[in-house]
Design a protein that fits this description.
mainly alpha
C-alpha cells in the first residue's frame, strides 16, 4: 500500500512541476524579436531610398503621409516593371516554325 501512495505522490509532483514550468514560460514577455533593418551608410544616395527610409521611421503614421504613399507607389512600379529583355520575340513573317515531337 505504501508503494502506491509513493507512486501517486511522485506523479502529482511531476504534473505540478510541469504545470509550473509551462505557466512560467507563458508568463514571460513574448513579443516579436527585433530584426535589424539594413540601411545604407551612404548619406548621398538615391532620394527615393531616403524617402522610403523616412517613411519606415514614421511607422504607422506613414499610412497617412501622401509623400510616403507616392514613394511606395513608385517603388512598386519600378520593382514590378517588366524588363524589355523578358518579352517574347515574335518570329519574322515568312519564317518557318517547326515543332519537334
Amino acid at each position: 500500500m505504501d508503494l502506491k501512495i509513493a507512486a501517486r505522490m511522485t506523479a502529482v509532483l511531476a504534473i505540478g512541476a510541469g504545470l509550473t514550468a509551462t505557466l512560467m514560460a507563458f508568463s514571460q514577455r513574448q513579443g516579436p524579436e527585433e530584426t535589424p533593418i539594413f540601411r545604407s551608410l551612404d548619406s548621398g544616395g538615391d532620394p527615393a531610398r531616403k524617402e522610403l527610409v523616412r517613411c519606415l521611421d514614421l511607422g504607422a503614421q506613414a499610412l497617412k503621409d501622401k509623400d510616403c504613399l507616392k514613394a511606395w507607389l513608385e517603388s512598386r512600379r519600378r520593382f514590378l516593371k517588366p524588363s524589355q529583355s523578358d518579352r517574347p520575340v515574335a518570329p519574322a513573317s515568312g519564317a518557318e516554325v517547326t515543332v519537334k515531337p
